[in-house]
Amino acid sequence: MKKMCVGIGILILLLGCNTDQDQLGQFNPYLINPQVNFTLNLNLPQYNDLNFPGGSAIITSQGIRGIVVYRLNDDLFTAFELSDPNHIPSECSRMIINGIEATCPCPGEDNTYNIVTGEHKTMPSLYPMLGYRVERSGANLRISN
């Protein structure tokens, strides 16, 4: 009986664990999971804003509709997909960045997200922005999934 209880406990523990993929919001039915793996050199002038906390850069050549990279502090960066995660990608679904907010410009949509956390501004029950991993090595940022 004791072995059965231990086995059930281990099974519950394993099923309750989240993977990195879960935390990055990879299971959104509206968005595909594009292959993303690129490096930004922070010494290049187009990424100068990322050298300061609160700075951001938009990379239009990656992801579904582009990626926004944001610098939180000296060591921490975030990267999120710019396609609105709460409807199917369309011509208007690339979100517009204003400060730390990303807003969907599609008519009839009232979706605004925080680019620091990826969460919807007013309805956290909606899908969050699709997140990407950011690894820093010296003056380089590697963004991947």
Sequence-ordered SSE layout with sheet pairings:
Layout: H1 2-15, H2 20-23, E1 37-41, E2 56-59, E3 67-71, E4 77-81, E5 96-98, E6 101-103, E7 112-114, E8 131-137, E9 140-144
Antiparallel strand pairs: 1-9, 2-3, 3-4, 4-8, 5-6, 6-7, 8-9
Commentary on this structure:
There is one protein chain. The strands form two sheets. This protein has a six-stranded antiparallel beta sheet, with no helix packed on it. A hairpin with a 2-residue loop joins strand 5 and strand 6 (101-103). The chain has one domain: Rieske Iron-sulfur Protein (3-layer Sandwich), CATH 2.102.10.10. The chain has two helices and nine strands; from the N terminus they run ααβββββββββ. Mean pLDDT is 85; it is low at 18-25. It has 145 residues and is an alpha+beta fold. The longest helix is centred in the first third of the chain and has 14 residues, at 2-15.
